[in-house]
Amino acid sequence: MNADPTTSIVDLKARIKSFCEARDWDQYHNAKDLAIGVSTEAGELLDLFRFKSLEEVEGMFRNAREREDIEDEMADVLFFVLRLGQKYDIDLATALARKMEKNELKYPVEKTRGSNLKYDKF
Amino acid sequence: MNADPTTSIVDLKARIKSFCEARDWDQYHNAKDLAIGVSTEAGELLDLFRFKSLEEVEGMFRNAREREDIEDEMADVLFFVLRLGQKYDIDLATALARKMEKNELKYPVEKTRGSNLKYDKF
Amino acid sequence: MNADPTTSIVDLKARIKSFCEARDWDQYHNAKDLAIGVSTEAGELLDLFRFKSLEEVEGMFRNAREREDIEDEMADVLFFVLRLGQKYDIDLATALARKMEKNELKYPVEKTRGSNLKYDKF
Amino acid sequence: MNADPTTSIVDLKARIKSFCEARDWDQYHNAKDLAIGVSTEAGELLDLFRFKSLEEVEGMFRNAREREDIEDEMADVLFFVLRLGQKYDIDLATALARKMEKNELKYPVEKTRGSNLKYDKF
């Protein structure tokens, strides 16, 4: 129920690798199709919120079935990001740390605090 | 350089929480806009491969600059998925494990081995 | 300035065909990559509204530069849908009419009037 | 069967306006949610081609049922682009013409002929 503190990125990659190899899916899992997977699953996640007000969206998280639908779609996005990382030897924790250092420069606290502007608009 | 074995999901969530709170972004980070973030960043990842052959895509991973571009876009997708999980108290490792159990049933090994069909097509 | 009443779908397809053939792009414009184009450009359109309130979004249409940004991204989505239609001999007006007849059945007026529910939820 | 030569953009907008007003959907059809609609339907179109080789994708257009699935998803994308144009008084033919003039400059024939490079890579 509370596995995020004890689950490493490598644990997740290993689980996914084993799932895909049992199905002999390496042949289909090139980077381009995996990126399509990330994108189409992200679309399914977003679709849950289409035409919903922000209040309705908050309510979905308090409804067990709707919350599970949301979590399922998030899991599908994660699946493809992790699979892409596993297939192409990408250390995701390092990639994320490096990108966030770039974001620290792109979005300096003093300029972006409380703002929703993009980095090219301030 | 090799942080995935020792980085937990909670470590990543904590890093992202601190980044966003320093910028007072909680007010903008409702689930709907975060899902938009997941989707638009997934589009940027996919855009790197548009009109590229599978051979060209493989070559991009051997080019340091292009590989970093790909990793950066993957990091951006991860950022929003993790932020959504952190903001709404979703245990992502549990969500992924549960979804993969559903996928084990939807895609039984004996029926899907070596196949690229969707679960509603076999 | 007001060309929609006098421009047919075939006019737009012809303009796009000529643009792409002058660049010898037929070789890259297979259906899969064109669908990637539709999706990534749709992401760029959506990205303009990320983290914006509904009021801010309305304001963007009253700002000449922001309105042009929105229209440009809509044009990019249209470009790829029309190119896909032109390349694969799809009569888009017929496809849209047929799909809307299906939607009339999926979303009957008496059940959907004033509702934002999906067809599988009422 | 062959309606694209005689159907104007305004004809399509009028059909969609009437469909949406009969359902009293104006209240949900703000630009942000309509852009979400464009993006999620584009994802459904792309999803049809996920893990398919280019040869398999070509074959889908020769199969009546699969061809109709593709056309339906293209129609859904068009629906939301046209609805957004109709709702916000955007002349789509003009927007497309203007964007293609920008693209003529971004992608000059002599530099882009036979190339799949983005404008910022040549």
From TrEMBL, chains A, B, C, D:
This is Nucleotide pyrophosphohydrolase. It comes from the Archaea. The lineage of its organism: Archaea, Methanobacteriati, Methanobacteriota, Stenosarchaea group, Methanomicrobia. GO terms for molecular function: nucleoside triphosphate diphosphatase activity. InterPro entries: dCTP_Pyrophosphatase, DCTPP. SUPFAM superfamilies: all-alpha NTP pyrophosphatases. GO terms for biological process: nucleoside triphosphate catabolic process.
